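Re: beginner question about structure tokens

> Can someone show what the tokenized structure looks like for a real chain? I only ever see the sequence side.

Sure, here's an example I had lying around. Input first:
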Amino acid sequence: MIDYEYRVLRLPGAVQRSEVRAMLTEEAEYGRWEAARVLLYAGGARQVWLRRRIIRVQRTA
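And the corresponding structure tokens:
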């Protein structure tokens, strides 16, 4: 079974689309996050759910 950890970002409508794209690209490259869900509200506000896999290390000895 794959486990994920989630992070929710709430972005106001004043943030431009290009800035949001740059921020999410940076999170994906350096933090290993991927977009799981995006909600766009009236007025332009966004709520983004990011997720990444939890890697469980099993003991070998």
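Each token stands for a local structural state, so reading them left to right follows the chain. The CA atoms of residues 5 and 18 lie 26 Å apart.
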